[in-house]
Amino acid sequence: MKLSILDQAPISNNQTAQEALFESVKLAQVGEELGYTRYWIAEHHDLPGLACSAPEVMLGYIGSKTNQIRIGCGAVLLPHYKPYKVAELYNMLATLFPNRIDIGIGRAPGGSAEATNALSNNFLQHVWDMPNSVKDLLHFIHKDFPEGHEFQHLTAAPYPDNHPAPWLLGTSKKSALLAAENGMAYVFGQFMSENNGEEIIQQYLKSFKPRKEGDKPRVIITITAFCAETIEEAEEIALSSLIWNIQRGKGEVTKGVPSISEAKQYQLTEKEYDTLEKMKHKIIIGNPETVKIKLHDLQTQYHADEIMIVTITHSPKDRIKSYELIADAVLRQI
């Protein structure tokens, strides 16, 4: 089984944004040492507690601090940007770091309505036009605009020998069908979806149209997981993230991910307690053996080629330890 890392660059309530971003660099380095296939960092805008608004900047820095792990964005929020500029950015990265760059593409706003308006005009129109934007981006990446197209002779320079690998991220049949139609690899965000993932993946696999000969469908499932030496410890480190999600859902402005002791002291209403229990059912919490079994079950259930894991804890040490234990159990088969 292949495992990868999705990093949302969380800021704990005892950290600065700079400290959180440096922890992201450290996580990528540790992921490389442990044998994770890829490290992706997410894009968010003016969301308290999340530090990365410019993944392309972080990827240039992280690429220089690592050697072989694939790195990319999960995801470039394409409706905010022109496909040509996105292609230039990721071609630049692919030129600097050959055979290592992924470009994950998404349609979410990644922030508040105010941030969306500040970033781009007519965001909803751009979402509506997403299929055309994806096609244009792929044409720029592959340099294969059809004869007579206005951009036929335009290059997203520098043009690398090995182009960035495009992935489409989503949580719905619509995104799955868009990926399949364009012969793209697909990432299903199970950690943020209420939809029937199995059905969506099956739709993708059945509808896949190769862009060129030899192209095959590829599937990554992204899940939230917390691993510790014992199940009790794993539940403790997960609690900080769960309570933080409840706080954000209520619109409470927090300084970041609360500590375990603060999370334990947080007063939940009966409705919030039910919400917390429902969240637990969607994520993986356990000791190494438990997590290993659940990951293999998930891979079988979704016919996934790879599992991408997002883990948010208050302590960076707990986050790294979780990834270490999972790697030991799954990648090293201990």
The CATH C-level class name of the largest domain: Alpha Beta
- Biggest sheet, spatial arrangement of strands: 1-2-3-4-5-6-7-9
Strand content: 15-25%
CATH superfamily of the largest domain: Luciferase-like domain
Quick one: biggest sheet? 8 strands, parallel, barrel
Order of helices and strands: EHEHEHEHHHEHEHEHHHEHEH
Quick one: how many beta strands? Answer: 9
For the record, the CATH architecture of the largest domain stands as: Alpha-Beta Barrel
Q: Which regions contain 5 or more consecutive residues with pLDDT less than 50?
A: none
**Oligomer class:** single chain
- What would the average pLDDT be, to the nearest integer? 96
- Helicity level, as a percent range? 40-55%
CATH topology-level name of the largest domain: TIM Barrel
The overall number of domains is: 2
Measured distance between first and last alpha carbons? 14 Å
Q: What is the structural class?
A: alpha/beta
The number of helical elements comes to 13
Shape: globular
List keywords for this structure.
Luciferase-like_sf, 13 helices, oxidoreductase activity, acting on paired donors, with incorporation or reduction of molecular oxygen, Bact_Lucif_Oxidored, Luciferase-like_dom, 8-stranded parallel beta barrel, alpha/beta, about 325 residues, LLM class flavin-dependent oxidoreductase
Commentary on this structure:
With 334 residues, this protein is of the alpha/beta class. The chain has 2 domains: 1-170, TIM Barrel (Alpha-Beta Barrel); 223-334, no CATH class. The protein has helices spanning 17-34, 55-65, 83-96, 113-119, 123-128, 130-142, 173-181, 197-207, 231-249, 260-265, 270-282, 288-302, 316-331, and strands at 2-7, 38-41, 70-77, 101-106, 165-170, 185-188, 219-227, 284-286, 306-310. The longest helix is centred in the C-terminal third of the chain and has 19 residues, at 231-249. The mean pLDDT is 96.
